[in-house]
Amino acid sequence: MKLLVNFSRGKGRKPIIAQVVRDTGVLINVERAVIDSSEGEALIDVPDDQCQLVRDSMVGLGATVHILEHGVSLDESECVDCGACISICPREVFTFDRDWKLCIDEKKCVICGKCVEACPSHALTLPV
């Protein structure tokens, strides 16, 4: 399960992800992170059955956490199967099937938004 974690350095300088791994014993995969001197956002992947434990631990340390049920979404009625998303995606979320119809593997998505910006028909949306 993917969690979008936002935190502020104003609430402390603790290494939140490391602290949660140590306290819970849950291994966390950081898929994307943008962190500067005052705040940060990280997309993490944790086992589904331990998602709530990790979320609660991070909230307890001052982070805001959103559980993401889905990655990028495709409106098939708007998609023209042009492949612009395929060429821009850093994680190979998009492919064509045998009939040249666009397919999505949401689990690979790191919610970077590059595909949404590249889509000429506005058929893609991000969660949250």
Explain what this protein looks like in three dimensions.
By secondary structure, this protein is an alpha+beta fold. The protein has two domains: 2-68, 2-Layer Sandwich (Alpha-Beta Plaits); 73-125, Alpha-Beta Plaits. It contains four helices and eight strands, in the order βαββαββαββαβ. The strands form three sheets. The protein has a four-stranded antiparallel sheet with strand order 2-3-1-4, covered by helices on one side. Helix 1 crosses helix 2 (51-60). The protein starts with a strand and ends with a strand. The mean pLDDT is 92.
How are the SSEs ordered, and which strands pair?
Layout: E1 2-8, H1 16-24, E2 29-35, E3 39-45, H2 51-60, E4 64-68, E5 73-74, H3 84-88, E6 94-96, E7 102-104, H4 114-118, E8 124-125
Antiparallel strand pairs: 1-3, 1-4, 2-3, 5-8, 6-7
Task: Please give a quick description of this structure.
This protein is α+β, with helices and mostly antiparallel strands. It contains four helices and eight strands. It has two domains: 67 residues, 2-Layer Sandwich (Alpha-Beta Plaits), CATH 3.30.70; 53 residues, Alpha-Beta Plaits, CATH 3.30.70.20.
